[in-house]
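User:
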Amino acid sequence: MIQIITYNVRKYEEYSDTTYKVSRLGDIQALDDFDICIVDLSDEDLWKYDQSEPININSYKDLLTIKEAIINKNKSKILIVLPQNKKFYYYGVQKYINSHYQTILDKFIQLKDNKENLVKIINNNLWDIGKVKLSFEKTKTVVENNKIDADFNFTNYEESGFEKVTYSKSSDKVTTIRKDTIFLTTLNLLEDGELLKVFIDTYFKEKMQKENTPDWVKDIKFFNDEQLIKDREKNLIKIEELEIKNNGIDQQLNKNLKYKSILYTNGDELVKVVLQILDEMLEYDSSGFIDENKEDFLIKKEDVTFVGEIKGVSSSVENKNVSQLDVHVQSYLDKLQEEGKEENVKGLLIINHQRNKPLNERQTVHEHQQKLAIRNNALIIETITLLRVYEEYKFGKLTPEECKKMFMDNIGLLKI
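Assistant: Predicted structure:
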């Protein structure tokens, strides 16, 4: 059986109880009761320190307990899993929240920018790794046809008596090292129980039994070795190509998610994405717009000026939402009159109403608000409708001119 020692036991809820015993960092079981003990340093919540400099962690005493257990163990093999490039929060300050004072960590630093202290924390509190250093470079290490990410790799390890176990094939960056029965790895192993099992089966069981096999034997080709190696290389290239394609797909999906965020967000987050959509559809640049706590946007085209209010609300659309837009429009018209100018001004209320409900549970904009918008010569655009217009634009079914004309010519509630 394998013991996983971790700050956050909840993330291992789906791991097999017959294979893994999950222990809290400060409540470990005897190491020699298990064949393998995994010390999980990968949880971001572990990397917190109340003091003014990020030179230790709040849970250092728990690490010292594990250190003593490692020193006194007889047979258990140890795998120490280092974190990826996470945020290290530090510098506790007292803030008055919910009627009492709480300690809030006010600063953070990326672990890649604090890697020397990361090594010192391990050296001082968990296990002496000597002169081993960490280098920050994102790599992929292949373990039994599985590509495993790592943000860090080891240098100077041989000087401290470690041997190389895993490394990235393309860049030869060392991602796992070993001294006797203690392993250190920077691989992102613990997000997937199957991936961890493959790693353990490869390097803690099979590899431990065959550790006396000399390296030169691997260079001797027998049977169908050469063809198998060629086939494996071709498969790795195909995997790499598919991964690149999938990365592109993931990027586009994430971009689509950003646009769809206007269906549930409010405030600055909503305004930012809506303006990106409007700028693209209307071929405009709102970056120079100065927010004077009046209208949320002012888009000036040759034949029309759109004065806009962007709202995210939990309720249905109310009269005050439409009236607030009219206040902005009238204020802008007054400004034009003072300057002796005339413009064709159109008010647009872009609203994400009932934003906490699924779309199929939201009520339609009431007739009262639609009539008020008609009276004010304004247009209400629900964010779902804006997305549909944007979709038509992206698919080439609407031009910027047609988008502009749609917003100019319609009043009340925009329907497509």
